Amino acid sequence: MTQTKSRIMSFVMAMFAFLVVFVMGPKLTAQASVTPNISTQLFYSQSGWADWKKAKELAYQQGQGTPSAVRVAIEGQPSYMTGTVRYSINSSGQGWLDWVENGAEIGAADQNGAPMEAIKMEVNGQLAFHYDVYYKVYQNKEWSDWKKNGEVAGTEGKGLQIEGLAVAMTRKGAPAPADNVFGSKNLGSFDPSRPMVALTFDDGPKRANTERILTVLEKYNARATFFMVGKSVDDHSKDLLERMVRDGDELGNHTYDHKQLTKLTPEQVEKEIMTTSENIYKAVGQYPTVMRPPYGDLNKNIQGQINGLGYPVIIWSLDTLDWKTRNTQSTINAILNNIKDGDVVLMHDLQDSTPGAVEVVVPELVRRGYQLVTVSELASTRGGLKAGHNYGSFRPK
Question: Pairing mode, if any, of strands 85-91 and 59-60?
Fold first, then answer.
């Protein structure tokens, strides 16, 4: 009888192991394949709490005083995975404050609060086995090197104040995020007081066209945002994305197959977006920062899904209709006759007529005094971006 019970127990345990490995295993792997979002919020002495900034967004505001408090939070953590993010700051004159966790305020959230000199953060629990948390600070007119998992970012004890903060999460052992993952390589590379516009390109990359566009942007020290379709992001286009990253261009999500999202199921919508994000990550080790739905087609349900995935929605304010006219001069005229400070310009690097227009438009806009920046750079000086919100223009009010 005892042997029979033993055999039964062995069989039950074997079946349980089978279920864990072959049934739950793929589910756990799938859940762990998407890196959780990490967000930060800074308190400024002159304007109070700023909007939350997600990973790949810049927590920095010029002219708002010195940050004296911070909150850090994780969203999208796999339900089965324990742990949280915790963080500590070195507050001027007070030294290191006690660690706090996920979403808690640390520092002095008031107009006379002591500035922050340094920060450190880490994830714990099971999160620590699967992910690394990276962070860097803007201090003394430059960004620090990336620090991770409890290392100190910033210089303590020398009176230097943290002015900006950037954070990101990566899979365990993955390379540090690219230096320009948050847009501009250097905050001094554009002047918020001068006119600026954001050129955007959809449906690529397409080698010959995208290469020509990148060459023009590089020549004039200009940047742009590329909304890419996931099916075109692979080993053959990897070098184009690497070039975008080196140049400080912004990577955007334009779905995998360019399907009209309002005609898809919620599961299909998520797959279109997430597969594209994963392809971009595999290519350059960073996720896209913004999302544009094909045809600009949205409804409340789709917008809610995009919000849940952590992306701001970027539409446009100036449509060149290059996809329709397929005429270089028409695209040139559409831009040069209508451009205004704060515009988001829609073009397509899929169209063969577009690079020729870019070769004319970019130097002319520079001559007129416009700064050509990414969408996130433009937004950072005019209210910022929020996940799930729609943005078409950043014209001064």
Answer: unpaired
